[in-house]
Structure formats: C-alpha cells, structure tokens
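Q: Hi! New to this. If I give you a protein sequence and the SMILES for manganese (II) ion, can you show me the bound structure?
A: Yes, paste them in.
Q: Okay, here:
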Amino acid sequence: MYSTFNRNCRKAYLINENEIGSFVWSSASFRSYIIGSKFAITVSARTTWQTDLCAPGRKLFSNMTSEAIVLLETVNFAAEKHRNQRRKDPEGTPYINHPIGVARILSHEGGITDIEVLQAALLHDTVEDTDTTHAELEAKFGPVVARIVQEVTDDKSLPKQERKRLQVEHAPHCSHQAKLVKLADKLYNLRDLNRSTPAGWTAERVQEYFVWASQVVKGLRGTNSVLEEKLEELFKQRGLQL
Ligand SMILES: [Mn+2]
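A: Thanks. Here is the predicted structure of the protein with manganese (II) ion bound:
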C-alpha cells in the first residue's frame, strides 16, 4: 500500500485544508497521497476512496515541484522550533538564519541537490537545541532525515569538552550525508566568527574554536571538495593546516 515518495512529481494538490503538508497528485492510473514528506499512499484511480478531494478546484501549486513544498514545510517547522532563539553575536541575529544558511551553503556552494540532506541541514539543531525529538522528526520527515539529524546531534547530557572531543572522534565514521551537513555547519560558524565575535568571547577563545573545528573537519575530508577548500582557506588565515 505504501510506495516511496515520488520526487519527480510535478503537481501537488491540497487534500485536506486542515492538513497542510498532505498533498495528492494523480496519473492516469494512480492517485497518490503524500503522508508527511517521505511516504505516499498510492491507490488505483478506479478506487473511489477520497477521489472527490482531487477535484480541479482543489488543485494547488501546480507549477511547483513537490520538493519545493517539502522544503517549505521543513523550513517552517525549523522556524517554529527556533522561534525564541537568537545567535550569540552581539546583534542577536534570529537563530533560524543559521540552519537556513547551512542548507544554502550546501545547495549554492556545495552543489547538493539531495533533498534529505537539505532538509537535515534545516533541522540539524532542532533536537539539540529545542524540544524536538527524534521520533517527531521521523514521523514528520521520515527515517533518513531523522537519522542524519541524529548523527549531527551532540549528547547534551555530557560535559561540553567531552561533546567536543566526541565530535572529533565520530566525524570520520558518519554517513556521507551527515558529513555534508557537518562541513556546511562548520563553514557557516567559522564565517560567522570572522564576521562578528560573540558577546563575551576573547580572541583566544575564537582561535581555540578554529583549532577544534579544524580537527573535526580533518575527519570529514573526501566528502565535498568545494566546501573543504573553502574551510581550508579559513583555517590557513588562522595559521592552521588540515
Ligand atoms: Mn549548527
């Protein structure tokens, strides 16, 4: 009854006004209802079940790809979760700028089009920094996205230094998708440190962050040459080599 989400689908239809995020598309022989973002339920067009919901008047986003809709759903979820958080810069930039920027680094600089990686980038700090749970991400965005987020989530029950040490240790053993998110996360954070020093940070603390980040990135090499070169350049400016 369940089939994998058809990422080539070009048309989306709203099936239930109270359930934004659930869409349907149809072909000559099938109608498919997207459940969450990851799975679709496909029924024969001859099945009368809910076919009235596909009436022409209910068609929405006909020129929009389903992936664009999924990304909007994802960025909206992240924005709601990070609603009350600010970055550490003196300007108190809204936190959501960070996950959006990480996803944009992947798409615009890293050439990444894997929707699950871009979704995981948008969600990468939700479990670590908000009340979001792994189960919640899995139910809403599917097991792959939830697993990538899990891989980039620190265990907050551990002391900070231990968490930082574990990031260095775990980096080489992450999945390719998680490594991409980690590279973009580090690139964003290092650029941010160059742009503006967080309130209360000394020059030494900034330098220590670069040293630690270089150790993590060392374990991520061989993942994306463009992102790695850009990181290498930032480390070089700080007198660090990978
Ligand atoms: Mn982050």
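A: The beta strands are 2-4, 12-14, 23-26, 30-35, 39-44, 59-60. Let me know if you'd like me to explain how to read the tokens.
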